[in-house]
Amino acid sequence: MISTHLAAWAAQDTQLLLVTLTALVTIVVLISFLSIAPFLSILIGTFVAGIGAGLPLEDIAKAFSKGAGSLLGEAGIIIALGAMLGALMAESGAADRIVNTLLRYARGSFIPWMMALVALVVGLPLFFEVGLVMMAPIIFVMARRSELPIMRVAIPALAGMTTLHALLPPHPGPLIAVSALHADLGTTMLLGFIVAIPAVIIAGPLYGNFIAPRLNLAEPDQIGKLFSAREGQSQPSFLVALVTILLPVVLMLGRTVARIWVTPKTELFEMLNFFGEPIIALTVTVLFAVVVLGWGQGSSRFEVGATLRRALPPIAGLLLTIGAGGGLKQTLLSAGISDTITKIADGTHMPLILLAWIIAVALRQATGSATVATTATAGIVAPLVAGLSATHNSLMALAIGAGSVFFCHVNDAGFWMVKEYFGLNLKQTLATWSVIQTLVSVIGLGMTLVLWGLLV
């Protein structure tokens, strides 16, 4: 049912929805059928959306620049630092050392399950983008050493990281939802783990085993070379390799601990908060790796410098594409797509938990950001959950998080990261990354509905 308030402006909002769909179709056609570079395709699609929505050309350009700059201002630096760290870990043999140790405990069909577990540990305090750049050298080396298809190794890791990003604090979306809905943090984390386990299993090892043989993918050349060990290089100890990959995890987890349990504005709080900032944590880790994996392994300063420089050219196209995705997102936001989705949600009548999930799904499709979708949805439904228990509010937060990762597509940075890192075409990216997120989203909704019924 749609309210009379909605009917008064339905024509304008219908136009905006159609324009958004046209822009997305334009991008897909340009990339898939005309083989236009993704960056240029998204730029063209952005102008299609902006012009169709009635934005002045100058405003479209400004929105695109703002969105691209905002995303690259943090994500771009994180990806660059992650590429440097990955190159140091691969060339020093640290990635091989970790893989050798993991292979002692998992071989053959058990490797995807091991990768899902590793991703859960590494990805707990990390943004998805940070988690991916940290896991990339492990994924590439593991696929190479185990002789498994690369996506059979990658998909469980991707599923683990995106599930945590959607459902569990300290990731920003879930934390904001917990705060907005006045849910209990501990309860949300406990229920989040219960919801996450089947989501990771089905979207990770099980789906990976199904889809990977059907993709027939080879290791991408440029990124593959970036994550290759130097011939004759002696490997660091497992402890040194493990400390290196877990250092940013510990630093970012320290920031979360500080915000929850440490008194604000104290020296301890400021120190943990500073070193837990993703860019700072990764910078510290890269410098640590330069010392222990570079100089400490006998490489000269010239060799280490060359490794760091070689890490950047392979990710140039990736950075441009991600920036373009941010520009498209900002243009759609400037055109008012979030307001349109909110108005539609206001006119519907359905169970609260399903309504929250659907709103988050719609906002994710429109804005391309799980965090934006979670934040906006939590604000929309917060007045409606005032009378619920803290436990039910936790389930509402989890349902919103699940909806926020439904079917990631061309307006999201993660989509392009996965595509470029693993050398996928558009169809393969949809069949892997978009389906992984959809499985996580639907399973997350199903689990929250089951728990909601059990806890009534």
From TrEMBL:
The chain crosses the membrane at residues 16-33, 39-57, 69-90, 110-143, 188-207, 238-258, 278-296, 308-328, 348-363, 370-390, 396-418, 430-455. It holds the Pfam family GntP_permease. The keyword Cell membrane applies. GO terms for cellular component: plasma membrane. GO terms for molecular function: gluconate transmembrane transporter activity. InterPro entries: Glcn_transporter. It is a multi-pass membrane protein. Keywords: Cell membrane, Membrane, Transmembrane, Transmembrane helix, Transport. It is found in: Cell membrane. Its main location: membrane. Belongs to the GntP permease family. This is Gluconate transporter family protein. It comes from Herbaspirillum seropedicae (strain SmR1).
